[in-house]
Amino acid sequence: MKIAIVTDSTAYLTEAEQQKYHITVVPIPVIIDGKEYKEGDDITTEAFYEKLKTSHSFPSTSQPPVGEMIELYEKLADEGYDTVISIHLASTISGFYNSLEQVAPSIDNIRVIPYDSKITVKLMGYLAIQASKMATLGRTPEQIIHYLDDLRSTIDELFVVDDLQNLVRGGRLSNASAFIGGILKIKPLLTFDDKSNEIVAFEKIRSRKKALKRVEELFAQAQQRTTYPLRALVINGNDPKAGNEWANKIHELYPDMKIEQSYFGPTIGTHLGDKALALAWLRDFDQDQL
């Protein structure tokens, strides 16, 4: 059995990671002032945020064409793969996964298993990397999916955004009505709801400094509830200086914990806007037996 791993550009894997783990990355289209760009191919993260400052309308995103996905899967079949596990951003913020679920049964020459990560960003990238490691070890698709479900259940994250404008206009915030009144005066905390997997705002905080402090408190509480070692991920949206400073602070608080940094690229930046920050965590998968 030969298993291919596919994900999309919102995993924000580096070129080195893509090559090392043989992961195929599908770019998500981003539309700015009517022009479409393929994330990671036609537009860099830096260029996106520059365009965001001068765009005449809010940017939007769309799905990769299903026809192109079928061509990709068939190409993988021609390369000798008999199965592909296609890991993609949460179905609650994109219809991409649902589109793949509909088309997968019609592809005859390769078994296509769409997988809803129920998350996005580098957290999803970790799932793709672990799936690739297991495929290399000869694990079955069922074993890989079971492991991904288990690892995914340990993921949690907290976002701090400058405002909710992009999320509200894009319809990606499920409880927007409760927060719109003070939209310009607060730094809302957001997360993916454990039950609905939708982005929800759950606390109103008056300053970014206090918001970050509150995230640290919630992270400390989360650690007390877990029975396994955690690793942390600090994510920034066009603010690497703030991301680095926060990562250093988290490292000072937890010197023995693995702490990495990543970023919100164009697709996720479209919804979170400029200067967003997040702290995410999950089980330290480097200690897992695959």
Automatic annotation (TrEMBL):
Pfam hit, one: DegV
Signal peptide segment: none
Annotated TM spans: none
GO MF: lipid binding
InterPro entries given in the database record: DegV (IPR003797), DegV_C (IPR043168), DegV_domain_contain (IPR050270)
Keyword Membrane in record: no
Annotated keywords: Lipid-binding
The UniProt record lists the keyword Ligase: no
Biological role stated in the UniProt entry: May bind long-chain fatty acids, such as palmitate, and may play a role in lipid transport or fatty acid metabolism.
The protein's name: DegV family protein
